[in-house]
Write a structure and sequence with these properties.
Shape: elongated
Number of domains: 3
Number of strands: 5
Helix content: 25-40%
Distance between the termini: 82 Å
Strand content: 5-15%
Number of helices: 5
Largest sheet: 3 strands, antiparallel
Radius of gyration: 28 Å
Strand order of the largest sheet: 3-4-5
Order of helices and strands: HHHHEEEHEE
Structural class: alpha+beta
Amino acid sequence: MSLKACDRPAECEKFAREFIVDRDPVAAYLRAHPRASWGTAVREGPRLARRPDVQALLAAMRDRDAHEPDSGHTSGGQDLAVLVSVHQACAYCHGRDHRRQRTRQEMQADRRAHRRDQAKMRGLYERAGKIYRARPFDPEGGDGFDPTKPPHPQCPSCLGHGVLRHAALNVRTGRGTFLSEQSQRARPQPARAKL
């Protein structure tokens, strides 16, 4: 095995950019060469990681990051990110009797909307000469919903699996951004009664 200079500098640079993410030569080789087989990655990844020119590229990247903290590791002009999946509690996991739990802001907004609707209905009934019996507000599962709690194992809505959320985690900063929210099992919403 020779440790000569890289005959394909673009390949070495691509591998170095991927290698600096997690320092795993096999995973870096597979990310740099998506069509490569596992066997090829096991053989070639560590070989590329030991090459002096790749080591020089890695040292240059580390030096650049030390002097320019906002530069980040880039791949095609973008910050490198890792996709992370997290199971979090659904809105029914920790509510009273596993009914839908709201955040405090949602509860306040729903109470205001309920008061508005009740006042509107009272006015319609009074104009029609009828007596209106106000319906009390249904708090359902209460307030204080925290999606960062773990799923409740006996939740009838998500069956203890929670809600699967995907986040793109920036490798350099360690900060994540949630991409989407996908419920494992959607609970049907009751139809609203019309008067």
